[in-house]
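USER: Write out one fold?

ASSISTANT:
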Amino acid sequence: MWFFSRKREIRYILSIDGGGMRGIIPSVVLARLNSILRSMGDRRPLYSHFDMIAGTSTGALLALGLASPAEKTALTAENLQPFAVESVRKTGFIRKENYVKGYIAPGADPTLFKDIYIDNGPRIFPSTLSSKTILYPILQDKYTAAPFEDFLKTMLRDVMMKDMLVPTMAVSFDIASGKCYLFRSWDGNPFLAREAARASAAAPMYFPLSELYDSRERRQLRLVDGGLIANNPALLAYSEARKLYPDADEFRILSLSTGSPGFRLEDKDIGGGIKSWASPVIKIYTEAGLENVDIIAGSIRDISYTRIWEQVLEKKIKLDSIKPTDTKELLDAGIRMADLSERKLREYAEWLVDEDVHDSVRLKGSAPDLGYGRRQLNA
């Protein structure tokens, strides 16, 4: 009968691509989504609208920054006022009363994310090759890890993965086992968030690999950039969310690109051998992987897939380019991406504002209790 029917369980996933300095583009899109939610009267921190946040490489940096407790990082909180979350309990046979279940912790201000790249790009990618031989980038990684690690320590300090305010995942690849490696905030491994960000962004030829010890599996990890396995982590996030929320009826994924311009090989460029294919095959592989995720995610019945991608870059910008002209073009491209995707973002935002606070959100004064039903927001 109708009074025994169960409310449909809908879960929301935020997925952010890899792309180095092109992370400026999804940073601008996140700020636009946050602005749209504010215009609709929703003042909750952006992270608290999602049941999972996932990222690869530069996307992992954004995901971890968004989901970290703002007071434990260098990221300024947008709202210091706590949001009370109420629930209802029975106090008699038919009598009920509201009580405060906990408070939503303040989240990082998404409008500042683009400045992470603009202000710290030269620190992460120092121009030090001028004094070295022309063979240096052939024989060694382009950059040492120390400047990047110092930046991550400044930004994320000593926040642990387990401290994430919602389930959060960073994608890496373990060359020791030849398999994808996922940093999960809920799996009990005592990793620092900055260790996860460093491993997820250890792009081969740019940074040395990251070596960590997995205390759960009791083995040494040798980790490189997650873009090798999933530059768009949407399907991996869905796979993990399916395990966390086995009773969910629908997963609504918001997938943010870093504005990859796509790759087309002209007939005149097609030849044979290493000379013709060494560079194109890597680009083709990367673009094909992104397209495959879009195709598969769009065909799975319990996924509603919103992909934010538009052709906004007029030229290829290297993942480590810190030239002012390039960072300005990336910032402009982010604004164009947000403008062209305004309708999609508003439609997704309308879903978010209609939802109560999810049980996946870690509340102050309350332990996370995945799978225990929705909480009501104290308006």
